[in-house]
């Protein structure tokens, strides 16, 4: 697995840039990852990110958009506004989690 350094964080990533070890993630890394894709994190972003991290710990896989909306309580329309164009992929990337299954 490739290793890269972002803002002083040495992290293991896959070919698409997703972290391969979710334990390497922290809030400051999330801010750096978000900035790399042009997103400035707000409280609304953190609500989705915190849900994804917690759900991943409990379920062992990255939540889909539908799950974030129905279980996490963040409407899909809001997710598209917060993480434009590819919300599931961008949320997973910023959250330091694998890309959700079925996400291209």
From TrEMBL:
Enzyme class (EC, first level):
transferase
Q: Where in the cell is it found?
A: Cytoplasm
Annotated InterPro entries: DsrC-like_C (IPR042072), DsrC-like_dom_sf (IPR025526), DsrC-like_N (IPR043163), DsrC/TusE (IPR007453)
Give the source's domain of life in one word. Answer: Bacteria
Leader sequence range is: none
One of the record's GO molecular function terms: transferase activity
| Record keywords, A-Z | Cytoplasm, Transferase
In terms of Pfam families, this protein maps to: DsrC
The EC number(s) this enzyme carries: 2.8.1.-
The protein's matches in NCBIfam families, at most eight in alphabetical order, are given as:
dsrC_tusE_dsvC
Identify its protein family.
Answer: Belongs to the DsrC/TusE family.
Q: What is this protein called?
A: tRNA 2-thiouridine synthesizing protein E
This protein's species is Microlunatus panaciterrae
Show the taxonomic lineage: Bacteria, Bacillati, Actinomycetota, Actinomycetes, Propionibacteriales
